[in-house]
Design goal:
By secondary structure, the chain is mainly α. The longest helix has 35 residues. The chain is elongated and about 75 Å long.
C-alpha cells in the first residue's frame, strides 16, 4: 500500500481506503487490549499469589484507560485552540496562508504545513494529558 506517500499524491479513493484500514486496525487493537485487560482484571487472586501485583496493576490501568478516553477530546480541543491562536501571527500567515501569486505546489505545501502543525499540536496535547494520567 501507499502508506508513506504524501496525501496529495494519492487519489481520493486510495486516501479513503488507507484511512479506513488504519481506523479499523487501530480499533481492533484497542478493543483487544481492553478486552484482555478486563478479562484478567476480573480474576480473583489471593493476596499471597505471585500475580497479585499484576492483577492490581491491570485494574489500575483499566481505570486509567477509561479516564484517558475522556482526555483525548480535551487534548484535541486544546490543540485546535492553540492552532487558532498561532494562526493570527505573522509567521503563521507566511507559512500557511495562500498568496494570490502562489503556484499549486506552493499552495499544497502551505496547506500541508498547516496540517502538520495542527497534527503536531494534537499529538503533543493528547500525549501530555495521557502521560499525566497513565503514569
Amino acid at each position: 500500500m501507499d502508506f508513506w506517500l504524501a496525501s496529495r499524491n494519492l487519489s481520493s479513493e486510495k486516501r479513503k481506503l488507507l484511512v479506513r484500514i488504519s481506523v479499523g486496525v487501530s480499533s481492533v487493537l484497542v478493543a483487544l487490549v481492553i478486552f484482555l485487560m478486563g478479562t484478567y482484571a476480573r480474576v480473583t487472586v489471593p493476596a499471597e499469589s505471585p500475580i497479585w501485583e499484576i492483577a492490581l496493576q491491570l485494574r489500575l490501568i483499566l481505570v486509567r484507560l477509561f479516564v484517558a478516553v475522556g482526555l483525548i477530546p480535551l487534548g484535541v480541543f486544546l490543540a485546535i485552540v492553540a492552532h487558532s491562536a498561532f494562526s493570527k501571527t505573522e509567521k503563521a500567515r507566511r507559512l500557511w496562508t495562500w498568496a494570490t501569486n502562489d503556484t499549486a505546489i506552493v499552495k499544497a505545501q502551505k496547506t500541508q504545513n498547516a496540517g502538520n502543525f495542527l497534527n503536531a499540536l494534537i499529538v503533543a496535547c493528547v500525549l501530555g494529558l495521557l502521560l499525566g494520567v497513565l503514569r
